[in-house]
Amino acid sequence: MGLVESGKMPKPLTKLLNMSRRYSMWVYQWGLACCAIEMGAAFASPRYDVMRLGVIPLPASPRQADFLVVSGTVTDKMAPAVRRLWEQMPDPKYVISMGSCANCGGPYWDSYSVTKGVDQIIPVDVYVPGCPPRPEALLEGIVLLQERIMNEDMAERWKGDPIVVE
Amino acid sequence: MSMTSESDQLAYIASQAADARVNVEVETDEGMTLNLGPQHPATHGTLRIIAKLDGEKVVAAEPIMGYMHRGYEKLTEVRTYPQVTTLVNRIDWLGSFANEVPFILAAEQLMEVEAPPRAQWIRTILFELSRIANVCLFLGDMAVQIGATTPVFYAFRDREFVLNQIERVTGGRFHPNFDRIGGLKDDLPKGWIEETRGALNRMTDFCDEMEELVLGNEIFQARTRGIGTIPSDVALAYGLSGANLRASGIDWDIRRDANVGLVYDQVDWKVWTHPDGDSFARFWVRLQETREACNIIDQLLGTIPSGPIMAKVPRIIKVPPGEAYVATENPLGEMGFYVVSKGDLTPFRVKIRSASFSNMSIAPWVLKDVFVPDIISILASLYFILGDIDR
Which residue in chain B has the smallest CA separation from A132? Predict the structure, then answer.
Protein backbone atom coordinates (compact mmCIF):
# COMPACT_ATOMS: atom_id res chain seq x y z
CA MET A 1 0.00 0.00 0.00
CA GLY A 2 2.49 2.57 -1.15
CA LEU A 3 -0.31 5.01 -1.82
CA VAL A 4 -1.36 5.08 1.77
CA GLU A 5 2.16 5.47 3.06
CA SER A 6 2.71 8.46 0.76
CA GLY A 7 -0.06 10.23 2.65
CA LYS A 8 -2.11 10.77 -0.51
CA MET A 9 -5.04 8.69 -1.59
CA PRO A 10 -6.88 9.13 -4.90
CA LYS A 11 -10.44 10.28 -4.21
CA PRO A 12 -12.25 7.60 -6.27
CA LEU A 13 -10.24 4.85 -4.60
CA THR A 14 -11.03 6.26 -1.16
CA LYS A 15 -14.70 6.40 -1.98
CA LEU A 16 -14.77 2.86 -3.29
CA LEU A 17 -12.89 1.48 -0.30
CA ASN A 18 -15.00 3.40 2.18
CA MET A 19 -18.24 2.31 0.57
CA SER A 20 -17.23 -1.33 0.75
CA ARG A 21 -16.12 -0.96 4.35
CA ARG A 22 -19.31 0.82 5.26
CA TYR A 23 -21.64 -1.90 4.13
CA SER A 24 -19.77 -4.93 5.41
CA MET A 25 -19.21 -4.29 9.06
CA TRP A 26 -18.82 -7.14 11.49
CA VAL A 27 -19.92 -6.13 14.92
CA TYR A 28 -18.47 -7.58 18.09
CA GLN A 29 -21.26 -7.17 20.53
CA TRP A 30 -20.55 -6.48 24.10
CA GLY A 31 -23.49 -7.65 26.13
CA LEU A 32 -22.86 -6.16 29.53
CA ALA A 33 -26.15 -5.14 31.10
CA CYS A 34 -29.71 -4.05 30.29
CA CYS A 35 -28.67 -2.52 26.97
CA ALA A 36 -27.55 -5.96 25.82
CA ILE A 37 -31.17 -7.02 25.57
CA GLU A 38 -32.08 -4.01 23.45
CA MET A 39 -29.01 -4.69 21.37
CA GLY A 40 -30.16 -8.29 21.06
CA ALA A 41 -33.54 -7.03 19.95
CA ALA A 42 -31.84 -4.90 17.29
CA PHE A 43 -29.51 -7.67 16.12
CA ALA A 44 -31.51 -10.84 16.57
CA SER A 45 -35.12 -9.84 16.19
CA PRO A 46 -36.95 -9.81 12.91
CA ARG A 47 -38.63 -6.52 13.77
CA TYR A 48 -35.48 -4.39 13.77
CA ASP A 49 -33.15 -6.53 11.63
CA VAL A 50 -29.74 -4.91 11.60
CA MET A 51 -28.54 -6.88 8.59
CA ARG A 52 -30.37 -4.60 6.18
CA LEU A 53 -27.80 -1.94 7.13
CA GLY A 54 -24.98 -4.22 6.10
CA VAL A 55 -23.99 -5.13 9.63
CA ILE A 56 -23.24 -8.73 10.45
CA PRO A 57 -23.58 -9.66 14.11
CA LEU A 58 -21.88 -12.47 16.02
CA PRO A 59 -18.37 -12.94 14.71
CA ALA A 60 -16.49 -15.75 16.37
CA SER A 61 -13.82 -13.55 17.88
CA PRO A 62 -12.89 -9.89 18.31
CA ARG A 63 -10.11 -10.50 15.80
CA GLN A 64 -12.73 -10.66 13.05
CA ALA A 65 -14.69 -7.60 14.13
CA ASP A 66 -14.76 -4.11 12.62
CA PHE A 67 -16.63 -2.36 15.35
CA LEU A 68 -17.67 -2.89 18.90
CA VAL A 69 -20.90 -2.03 20.68
CA VAL A 70 -20.25 -1.52 24.38
CA SER A 71 -23.75 -2.00 25.70
CA GLY A 72 -24.20 -1.51 29.37
CA THR A 73 -22.47 -0.75 32.61
CA VAL A 74 -18.69 -1.09 32.63
CA THR A 75 -17.51 -1.73 36.16
CA ASP A 76 -13.99 -1.25 37.40
CA LYS A 77 -13.61 -5.02 37.62
CA MET A 78 -14.71 -5.47 34.01
CA ALA A 79 -12.73 -2.53 32.58
CA PRO A 80 -9.43 -4.42 32.01
CA ALA A 81 -11.30 -7.08 30.03
CA VAL A 82 -12.99 -4.39 27.92
CA ARG A 83 -9.65 -2.81 27.15
CA ARG A 84 -8.06 -6.15 26.35
CA LEU A 85 -10.74 -7.29 23.92
CA TRP A 86 -10.66 -3.89 22.20
CA GLU A 87 -6.91 -4.27 21.77
CA GLN A 88 -7.45 -7.62 20.09
CA MET A 89 -9.54 -6.06 17.32
CA PRO A 90 -7.68 -5.28 14.08
CA ASP A 91 -7.41 -1.70 12.90
CA PRO A 92 -9.43 0.16 11.50
CA LYS A 93 -11.79 -0.34 14.40
CA TYR A 94 -14.67 1.68 15.74
CA VAL A 95 -16.57 1.79 19.00
CA ILE A 96 -20.21 2.60 19.67
CA SER A 97 -20.96 3.35 23.29
CA MET A 98 -24.56 2.36 23.90
CA GLY A 99 -26.55 3.66 26.83
CA SER A 100 -26.02 6.12 29.64
CA CYS A 101 -23.85 3.78 31.71
CA ALA A 102 -21.28 3.31 28.97
CA ASN A 103 -21.45 7.00 28.07
CA CYS A 104 -20.97 8.55 31.48
CA GLY A 105 -21.98 6.23 34.30
CA GLY A 106 -25.70 6.89 33.98
CA PRO A 107 -27.80 6.19 37.05
CA TYR A 108 -24.69 4.95 38.84
CA TRP A 109 -22.88 8.27 38.56
CA ASP A 110 -22.04 8.16 42.29
CA SER A 111 -21.39 4.44 42.61
CA TYR A 112 -18.08 3.22 43.98
CA SER A 113 -17.68 0.36 41.54
CA VAL A 114 -18.81 1.72 38.16
CA THR A 115 -16.45 3.19 35.56
CA LYS A 116 -17.90 6.58 34.66
CA GLY A 117 -17.82 6.24 30.92
CA VAL A 118 -16.13 3.67 28.73
CA ASP A 119 -14.33 6.54 26.92
CA GLN A 120 -11.94 6.64 29.84
CA ILE A 121 -10.41 3.37 28.68
CA ILE A 122 -11.08 3.14 24.92
CA PRO A 123 -11.79 5.81 22.27
CA VAL A 124 -15.47 6.06 21.34
CA ASP A 125 -16.77 7.10 17.92
CA VAL A 126 -20.53 7.28 18.45
CA TYR A 127 -22.46 7.74 21.68
CA VAL A 128 -26.04 6.47 21.78
CA PRO A 129 -27.94 8.08 24.66
CA GLY A 130 -30.80 6.45 26.53
CA CYS A 131 -31.37 4.14 29.46
CA PRO A 132 -31.60 1.83 27.66
CA PRO A 133 -31.76 3.25 24.12
CA ARG A 134 -34.46 1.78 21.94
CA PRO A 135 -33.26 -0.56 19.19
CA GLU A 136 -34.09 2.19 16.69
CA ALA A 137 -31.66 4.47 18.50
CA LEU A 138 -28.88 1.91 18.13
CA LEU A 139 -29.67 1.59 14.43
CA GLU A 140 -29.41 5.37 14.13
CA GLY A 141 -26.04 5.21 15.85
CA ILE A 142 -24.89 2.60 13.37
CA VAL A 143 -26.04 4.79 10.46
CA LEU A 144 -24.09 7.72 11.92
CA LEU A 145 -21.01 5.51 12.21
CA GLN A 146 -21.43 4.47 8.58
CA GLU A 147 -21.54 8.11 7.54
CA ARG A 148 -18.37 8.71 9.49
CA ILE A 149 -16.64 5.83 7.75
CA MET A 150 -17.82 7.10 4.36
CA ASN A 151 -16.26 10.53 4.92
CA GLU A 152 -13.01 9.14 6.25
CA ASP A 153 -9.68 9.70 4.54
CA MET A 154 -7.86 6.42 5.01
CA ALA A 155 -4.44 7.94 4.42
CA GLU A 156 -5.19 10.43 7.15
CA ARG A 157 -6.25 7.69 9.50
CA TRP A 158 -3.24 5.52 8.96
CA LYS A 159 -0.74 8.32 9.26
CA GLY A 160 1.55 8.38 12.27
CA ASP A 161 3.02 5.74 14.48
CA PRO A 162 1.37 2.39 14.80
CA ILE A 163 -0.46 1.61 18.02
CA VAL A 164 1.70 -0.53 20.25
CA VAL A 165 -0.07 -3.08 22.37
CA GLU A 166 1.63 -3.57 25.68
CA MET B 1 -35.74 -34.23 53.63
CA SER B 2 -33.00 -36.76 54.13
CA MET B 3 -31.04 -34.45 56.46
CA THR B 4 -31.71 -35.27 60.06
CA SER B 5 -30.67 -32.12 61.83
CA GLU B 6 -29.70 -28.61 61.00
CA SER B 7 -26.05 -29.09 61.94
CA ASP B 8 -25.79 -32.12 59.64
CA GLN B 9 -27.18 -30.06 56.86
CA LEU B 10 -24.72 -27.22 57.43
CA ALA B 11 -21.78 -29.62 57.57
CA TYR B 12 -22.94 -31.17 54.29
CA ILE B 13 -23.14 -27.80 52.56
CA ALA B 14 -19.72 -26.80 53.91
CA SER B 15 -18.08 -30.00 52.68
CA GLN B 16 -19.61 -29.57 49.23
CA ALA B 17 -18.42 -25.99 49.02
CA ALA B 18 -14.90 -26.94 50.11
CA ASP B 19 -14.72 -29.57 47.38
CA ALA B 20 -15.60 -27.04 44.77
CA ARG B 21 -12.88 -24.51 45.54
CA VAL B 22 -10.55 -24.24 42.59
CA ASN B 23 -7.02 -23.07 42.80
CA VAL B 24 -6.80 -20.88 39.74
CA GLU B 25 -3.05 -20.59 39.72
CA VAL B 26 -2.20 -24.26 39.77
CA GLU B 27 -2.12 -26.30 36.59
CA THR B 28 -1.94 -29.84 37.88
CA ASP B 29 -0.47 -32.78 36.02
CA GLU B 30 -3.70 -34.69 35.76
CA GLY B 31 -5.96 -31.87 34.60
CA MET B 32 -6.31 -28.49 33.00
CA THR B 33 -8.12 -25.33 33.99
CA LEU B 34 -10.72 -23.90 31.64
CA ASN B 35 -11.81 -20.32 31.89
CA LEU B 36 -15.28 -19.32 30.68
CA GLY B 37 -15.95 -15.66 30.55
CA PRO B 38 -16.20 -12.95 31.78
CA GLN B 39 -17.22 -12.25 28.19
CA HIS B 40 -18.89 -15.38 26.91
CA PRO B 41 -22.21 -15.77 25.12
CA ALA B 42 -23.36 -18.53 27.45
CA THR B 43 -22.94 -16.47 30.58
CA HIS B 44 -25.62 -13.91 29.69
CA GLY B 45 -23.14 -11.16 30.31
CA THR B 46 -20.20 -11.01 32.60
CA LEU B 47 -20.11 -14.14 34.70
CA ARG B 48 -16.85 -16.00 34.87
CA ILE B 49 -16.64 -19.73 35.47
CA ILE B 50 -13.36 -21.43 36.20
CA ALA B 51 -13.57 -25.15 35.66
CA LYS B 52 -10.96 -27.73 36.46
CA LEU B 53 -11.11 -30.48 33.88
CA ASP B 54 -10.05 -34.08 33.68
CA GLY B 55 -10.30 -34.76 29.97
CA GLU B 56 -13.81 -33.68 29.05
CA LYS B 57 -15.08 -34.05 32.58
CA VAL B 58 -15.42 -31.20 35.03
CA VAL B 59 -13.72 -32.01 38.31
CA ALA B 60 -14.65 -28.75 39.97
CA ALA B 61 -16.13 -25.47 38.83
CA GLU B 62 -16.37 -22.16 40.53
CA PRO B 63 -18.26 -19.07 39.46
CA ILE B 64 -16.57 -15.73 39.98
CA MET B 65 -19.02 -12.91 40.37
CA GLY B 66 -18.78 -9.18 40.75
CA TYR B 67 -18.14 -8.11 37.17
CA MET B 68 -21.53 -6.39 37.15
CA HIS B 69 -21.53 -5.14 40.74
CA ARG B 70 -22.97 -1.64 40.73
CA GLY B 71 -23.39 -1.04 44.44
CA TYR B 72 -27.17 -0.84 44.67
CA GLU B 73 -27.37 -1.31 48.40
CA LYS B 74 -25.03 1.60 49.03
CA LEU B 75 -26.67 3.79 46.39
CA THR B 76 -30.11 3.38 47.94
CA GLU B 77 -28.81 5.07 51.07
CA VAL B 78 -28.41 8.35 49.20
CA ARG B 79 -31.56 8.16 47.07
CA THR B 80 -35.01 9.21 48.23
CA TYR B 81 -37.72 6.56 48.28
CA PRO B 82 -39.26 7.49 44.90
CA GLN B 83 -35.79 7.56 43.36
CA VAL B 84 -34.97 4.06 44.56
CA THR B 85 -37.52 2.52 42.19
CA THR B 86 -35.51 3.93 39.27
CA LEU B 87 -32.49 2.02 40.52
CA VAL B 88 -34.12 -1.27 41.42
CA ASN B 89 -35.72 -1.44 37.98
CA ARG B 90 -32.32 -2.28 36.65
CA ILE B 91 -31.58 -5.26 38.89
CA ASP B 92 -33.37 -7.88 36.82
CA TRP B 93 -33.51 -6.04 33.53
CA LEU B 94 -35.76 -8.47 31.73
CA GLY B 95 -38.71 -8.17 34.09
CA SER B 96 -38.22 -4.67 35.37
CA PHE B 97 -41.63 -3.91 36.79
CA ALA B 98 -41.47 -6.96 39.02
CA ASN B 99 -38.45 -5.48 40.81
CA GLU B 100 -40.23 -2.32 41.87
CA VAL B 101 -43.12 -4.09 43.52
CA PRO B 102 -41.42 -5.67 46.58
CA PHE B 103 -39.61 -2.44 47.42
CA ILE B 104 -42.76 -0.36 47.11
CA LEU B 105 -44.70 -2.91 49.17
CA ALA B 106 -42.06 -2.77 51.90
CA ALA B 107 -42.19 1.03 51.96
CA GLU B 108 -45.99 0.92 52.02
CA GLN B 109 -45.85 -1.48 54.93
CA LEU B 110 -43.66 0.94 56.87
CA MET B 111 -45.88 3.91 56.04
CA GLU B 112 -49.01 1.87 56.78
CA VAL B 113 -50.72 2.80 53.55
CA GLU B 114 -52.39 0.39 51.19
CA ALA B 115 -52.86 0.85 47.46
CA PRO B 116 -56.49 1.01 46.28
CA PRO B 117 -57.90 -2.20 44.74
CA ARG B 118 -57.63 -0.92 41.18
CA ALA B 119 -53.93 -0.18 41.65
CA GLN B 120 -53.39 -3.64 43.14
CA TRP B 121 -55.09 -5.22 40.15
CA ILE B 122 -53.05 -3.29 37.60
CA ARG B 123 -49.90 -3.99 39.58
CA THR B 124 -50.55 -7.71 39.42
CA ILE B 125 -51.27 -7.55 35.69
CA LEU B 126 -48.06 -5.65 35.00
CA PHE B 127 -46.17 -8.01 37.31
CA GLU B 128 -47.28 -11.00 35.29
CA LEU B 129 -46.66 -9.22 31.99
CA SER B 130 -43.08 -8.62 33.02
CA ARG B 131 -42.85 -12.30 33.95
CA ILE B 132 -43.88 -13.20 30.43
CA ALA B 133 -41.39 -10.71 28.96
CA ASN B 134 -38.68 -12.26 31.10
CA VAL B 135 -39.34 -15.97 30.75
CA CYS B 136 -40.17 -15.66 27.05
CA LEU B 137 -36.57 -14.74 26.38
CA PHE B 138 -35.37 -17.67 28.50
CA LEU B 139 -37.35 -20.08 26.35
CA GLY B 140 -35.57 -18.85 23.26
CA ASP B 141 -32.21 -18.48 24.92
CA MET B 142 -32.11 -21.95 26.43
CA ALA B 143 -32.58 -23.43 22.99
CA VAL B 144 -29.93 -21.22 21.44
CA GLN B 145 -27.39 -22.30 24.05
CA ILE B 146 -27.99 -25.89 23.07
CA GLY B 147 -27.55 -25.11 19.40
CA ALA B 148 -30.97 -24.33 17.95
CA THR B 149 -30.84 -20.80 16.57
CA THR B 150 -34.43 -20.34 15.46
CA PRO B 151 -36.30 -20.18 18.81
CA VAL B 152 -34.48 -17.05 19.93
CA PHE B 153 -35.74 -15.19 16.87
CA TYR B 154 -39.27 -16.28 17.68
CA ALA B 155 -38.78 -15.22 21.30
CA PHE B 156 -37.58 -11.75 20.34
CA ARG B 157 -40.41 -11.41 17.83
CA ASP B 158 -43.22 -12.32 20.20
CA ARG B 159 -41.72 -10.55 23.19
CA GLU B 160 -42.24 -7.25 21.39
CA PHE B 161 -45.99 -7.64 21.69
CA VAL B 162 -45.77 -7.81 25.47
CA LEU B 163 -43.24 -4.98 25.62
CA ASN B 164 -45.58 -2.84 23.51
CA GLN B 165 -48.34 -3.34 26.04
CA ILE B 166 -46.05 -2.46 28.94
CA GLU B 167 -44.85 0.59 27.03
CA ARG B 168 -48.36 1.73 26.24
CA VAL B 169 -49.36 1.86 29.89
CA THR B 170 -46.10 2.88 31.56
CA GLY B 171 -44.26 4.80 28.84
CA GLY B 172 -41.16 2.66 29.29
CA ARG B 173 -40.32 -0.30 27.11
CA PHE B 174 -37.79 -1.68 29.50
CA HIS B 175 -37.64 0.20 32.75
CA PRO B 176 -41.15 1.43 33.51
CA ASN B 177 -40.56 3.15 36.88
CA PHE B 178 -44.34 3.16 37.16
CA ASP B 179 -45.01 1.99 40.70
CA ARG B 180 -45.47 4.61 43.39
CA ILE B 181 -45.81 4.35 47.14
CA GLY B 182 -49.58 4.18 47.60
CA GLY B 183 -50.56 3.30 44.05
CA LEU B 184 -49.53 3.81 40.47
CA LYS B 185 -48.43 6.76 38.36
CA ASP B 186 -51.21 6.61 35.80
CA ASP B 187 -54.37 4.77 34.92
CA LEU B 188 -54.69 2.36 32.02
CA PRO B 189 -55.01 3.99 28.59
CA LYS B 190 -58.15 3.54 26.53
CA GLY B 191 -58.47 0.27 24.66
CA TRP B 192 -55.53 -1.28 26.49
CA ILE B 193 -57.43 -4.27 27.84
CA GLU B 194 -58.52 -5.51 24.40
CA GLU B 195 -55.05 -5.02 22.97
CA THR B 196 -53.55 -6.95 25.87
CA ARG B 197 -55.91 -9.82 25.18
CA GLY B 198 -54.56 -9.86 21.63
CA ALA B 199 -50.98 -9.93 22.91
CA LEU B 200 -51.85 -12.77 25.31
CA ASN B 201 -53.29 -14.84 22.47
CA ARG B 202 -50.05 -14.29 20.66
CA MET B 203 -48.06 -15.45 23.70
CA THR B 204 -50.18 -18.56 24.14
CA ASP B 205 -49.48 -19.40 20.51
CA PHE B 206 -45.80 -18.81 21.19
CA CYS B 207 -45.88 -21.27 24.10
CA ASP B 208 -47.53 -23.90 21.89
CA GLU B 209 -44.94 -23.25 19.22
CA MET B 210 -42.09 -23.64 21.72
CA GLU B 211 -43.59 -26.84 23.01
CA GLU B 212 -43.66 -28.34 19.54
CA LEU B 213 -40.38 -26.86 18.37
CA VAL B 214 -38.18 -27.38 21.41
CA LEU B 215 -39.69 -29.70 24.01
CA GLY B 216 -40.35 -32.56 21.64
CA ASN B 217 -37.02 -32.21 19.91
CA GLU B 218 -34.86 -35.29 20.23
CA ILE B 219 -31.57 -33.40 20.45
CA PHE B 220 -32.97 -31.06 23.06
CA GLN B 221 -34.12 -33.97 25.18
CA ALA B 222 -30.79 -35.73 24.84
CA ARG B 223 -28.98 -32.60 25.97
CA THR B 224 -31.23 -31.85 28.93
CA ARG B 225 -32.85 -35.00 30.32
CA GLY B 226 -30.95 -36.26 33.33
CA ILE B 227 -28.40 -33.44 33.01
CA GLY B 228 -27.79 -31.22 36.00
CA THR B 229 -30.18 -33.02 38.29
CA ILE B 230 -30.82 -31.23 41.58
CA PRO B 231 -32.61 -33.35 44.22
CA SER B 232 -35.19 -31.56 46.31
CA ASP B 233 -33.21 -31.64 49.58
CA VAL B 234 -30.14 -30.12 47.92
CA ALA B 235 -32.30 -27.46 46.27
CA LEU B 236 -33.69 -26.51 49.66
CA ALA B 237 -30.28 -26.55 51.32
CA TYR B 238 -28.84 -24.14 48.77
CA GLY B 239 -31.80 -21.79 49.05
CA LEU B 240 -33.03 -22.07 45.49
CA SER B 241 -36.26 -20.36 44.71
CA GLY B 242 -38.68 -19.84 41.87
CA ALA B 243 -38.91 -22.23 38.97
CA ASN B 244 -35.60 -23.89 39.87
CA LEU B 245 -37.10 -25.02 43.16
CA ARG B 246 -40.40 -26.09 41.64
CA ALA B 247 -38.56 -28.07 38.98
CA SER B 248 -37.06 -30.11 41.83
CA GLY B 249 -40.53 -31.12 42.93
CA ILE B 250 -41.09 -28.69 45.78
CA ASP B 251 -44.50 -27.09 45.69
CA TRP B 252 -43.65 -23.60 46.91
CA ASP B 253 -44.77 -20.37 45.35
CA ILE B 254 -44.80 -17.05 47.19
CA ARG B 255 -47.67 -15.87 45.04
CA ARG B 256 -49.84 -18.55 46.60
CA ASP B 257 -48.22 -19.28 49.96
CA ALA B 258 -47.01 -15.92 51.25
CA ASN B 259 -48.71 -13.36 49.08
CA VAL B 260 -48.45 -9.70 50.12
CA GLY B 261 -50.21 -6.83 48.40
CA LEU B 262 -50.99 -8.51 45.09
CA VAL B 263 -54.31 -10.06 44.14
CA TYR B 264 -53.39 -13.63 43.28
CA ASP B 265 -56.04 -14.90 45.68
CA GLN B 266 -58.71 -13.52 43.32
CA VAL B 267 -57.63 -15.80 40.50
CA ASP B 268 -58.02 -19.48 39.84
CA TRP B 269 -54.57 -20.72 38.91
CA LYS B 270 -52.13 -23.55 39.45
CA VAL B 271 -48.55 -23.89 40.62
CA TRP B 272 -46.61 -26.14 38.26
CA THR B 273 -44.00 -28.53 39.58
CA HIS B 274 -41.89 -31.24 38.01
CA PRO B 275 -40.42 -34.17 39.94
CA ASP B 276 -37.21 -34.64 37.92
CA GLY B 277 -35.08 -31.62 38.84
CA ASP B 278 -32.99 -31.73 35.66
CA SER B 279 -32.47 -29.10 32.97
CA PHE B 280 -35.46 -30.36 31.05
CA ALA B 281 -37.72 -29.97 34.11
CA ARG B 282 -36.60 -26.39 34.60
CA PHE B 283 -37.42 -25.56 31.00
CA TRP B 284 -40.76 -27.33 31.24
CA VAL B 285 -41.80 -25.57 34.45
CA ARG B 286 -40.96 -22.16 33.01
CA LEU B 287 -42.90 -22.90 29.84
CA GLN B 288 -45.96 -23.87 31.86
CA GLU B 289 -45.56 -20.78 34.03
CA THR B 290 -45.59 -18.51 31.01
CA ARG B 291 -48.84 -20.10 29.95
CA GLU B 292 -50.19 -19.80 33.49
CA ALA B 293 -49.23 -16.11 33.57
CA CYS B 294 -51.31 -15.58 30.42
CA ASN B 295 -54.18 -17.31 32.21
CA ILE B 296 -53.80 -15.14 35.32
CA ILE B 297 -53.71 -11.90 33.32
CA ASP B 298 -56.67 -13.00 31.24
CA GLN B 299 -58.77 -13.53 34.36
CA LEU B 300 -57.62 -10.30 36.01
CA LEU B 301 -58.35 -8.21 32.91
CA GLY B 302 -62.01 -9.10 33.19
CA THR B 303 -62.33 -8.12 36.85
CA ILE B 304 -60.44 -4.83 37.24
CA PRO B 305 -62.45 -2.81 39.78
CA SER B 306 -63.10 0.87 39.23
CA GLY B 307 -61.92 3.54 41.63
CA PRO B 308 -58.85 5.64 42.30
CA ILE B 309 -55.35 4.41 41.50
CA MET B 310 -53.55 6.33 44.21
CA ALA B 311 -54.03 6.28 47.97
CA LYS B 312 -53.59 9.42 50.02
CA VAL B 313 -49.88 9.87 50.63
CA PRO B 314 -47.99 13.06 51.50
CA ARG B 315 -46.21 14.77 48.64
CA ILE B 316 -42.83 14.54 50.32
CA ILE B 317 -42.42 10.95 51.36
CA LYS B 318 -40.89 10.45 54.78
CA VAL B 319 -41.05 6.89 55.96
CA PRO B 320 -41.50 6.40 59.70
CA PRO B 321 -38.77 4.48 61.56
CA GLY B 322 -39.02 0.73 61.39
CA GLU B 323 -38.02 -2.36 59.49
CA ALA B 324 -39.90 -4.35 56.88
CA TYR B 325 -39.16 -7.34 54.69
CA VAL B 326 -41.36 -8.08 51.71
CA ALA B 327 -40.66 -10.78 49.15
CA THR B 328 -42.46 -11.51 45.91
CA GLU B 329 -42.25 -14.34 43.42
CA ASN B 330 -40.31 -12.63 40.66
CA PRO B 331 -39.65 -14.27 37.30
CA LEU B 332 -36.30 -15.54 38.58
CA GLY B 333 -37.44 -16.53 42.05
CA GLU B 334 -37.85 -14.96 45.44
CA MET B 335 -36.90 -11.31 45.44
CA GLY B 336 -37.06 -9.59 48.78
CA PHE B 337 -36.29 -6.13 50.08
CA TYR B 338 -35.38 -5.62 53.71
CA VAL B 339 -35.82 -1.91 54.30
CA VAL B 340 -34.63 -0.19 57.46
CA SER B 341 -35.87 3.35 57.95
CA LYS B 342 -34.81 5.92 60.51
CA GLY B 343 -37.47 8.43 59.55
CA ASP B 344 -35.46 10.20 56.85
CA LEU B 345 -36.13 10.95 53.19
CA THR B 346 -33.78 8.12 52.26
CA PRO B 347 -33.70 4.54 53.51
CA PHE B 348 -31.14 3.88 56.23
CA ARG B 349 -30.29 0.48 54.80
CA VAL B 350 -31.72 -1.73 52.08
CA LYS B 351 -30.78 -5.37 51.83
CA ILE B 352 -31.71 -6.94 48.54
CA ARG B 353 -32.32 -10.66 48.48
CA SER B 354 -32.16 -11.45 44.80
CA ALA B 355 -33.05 -14.81 43.39
CA SER B 356 -30.19 -15.34 40.96
CA PHE B 357 -27.51 -14.98 43.63
CA SER B 358 -28.89 -17.94 45.57
CA ASN B 359 -29.66 -19.87 42.41
CA MET B 360 -26.09 -19.37 41.25
CA SER B 361 -24.64 -20.61 44.54
CA ILE B 362 -25.54 -24.15 43.55
CA ALA B 363 -23.30 -23.96 40.46
CA PRO B 364 -20.21 -25.60 42.09
CA TRP B 365 -22.40 -28.48 43.25
CA VAL B 366 -24.33 -29.06 40.08
CA LEU B 367 -21.41 -28.52 37.69
CA LYS B 368 -19.38 -31.23 39.38
CA ASP B 369 -18.77 -34.37 37.26
CA VAL B 370 -20.55 -33.11 34.17
CA PHE B 371 -19.09 -32.75 30.68
CA VAL B 372 -17.96 -29.42 29.29
CA PRO B 373 -20.91 -28.91 26.90
CA ASP B 374 -23.26 -29.60 29.80
CA ILE B 375 -21.89 -26.56 31.64
CA ILE B 376 -23.62 -24.43 29.04
CA SER B 377 -26.96 -26.21 29.13
CA ILE B 378 -27.02 -26.34 32.93
CA LEU B 379 -26.16 -22.66 33.29
CA ALA B 380 -28.78 -21.75 30.71
CA SER B 381 -31.42 -23.81 32.49
CA LEU B 382 -30.58 -22.37 35.92
CA TYR B 383 -31.44 -19.02 34.32
CA PHE B 384 -29.74 -16.18 36.08
CA ILE B 385 -29.39 -12.55 35.17
CA LEU B 386 -26.11 -10.90 35.98
CA GLY B 387 -27.64 -7.76 37.37
CA ASP B 388 -29.62 -9.95 39.69
CA ILE B 389 -26.54 -11.85 40.86
CA ASP B 390 -24.15 -8.96 41.41
CA ARG B 391 -26.58 -6.11 41.99
Answer: B174
